[in-house]
Hints:
Order of helices and strands: HHEHEHEEE
Radius of gyration: 22 Å
Helix content: 25-40%
Structural class: alpha+beta
Amino acid sequence: MTLSRHRALLLAALLLAASAAFLLSGAVPAQSAATRTCPLTSSEQDPPGDVPTYNLTLKAKGSSCTTAKKVMKAFHKCRSANGVVCSKKVLTHWTCSGRKTSGTPVLFYANFTCKWGARRVTSSYQQNT
């Protein structure tokens, strides 16, 4: 075997080992790890319920917008009518935290973040009191 052929085989083996290590590490490709803004239909912005709540923004990182919308709906179902806290996991895996960002006597603005591993769903909403 010639020296250049030996180097080529060694380089190929190193590239194969590096690729395998990347795949086994569970690294998320850059495209799917990017934060994406999810479009909301008018019915998703103003969902039915006892308390008027208006979803303003929804963003997903490491998950699809379809999943993010399911998480958003589950969070609003979990939290109390006038609160921003959901004390249990939603959709089995997601842990959520929320906080009011501002308000007046008749409404408040709030946001929440739900996490499952490296996945994130964030949203802001307005609620009439």
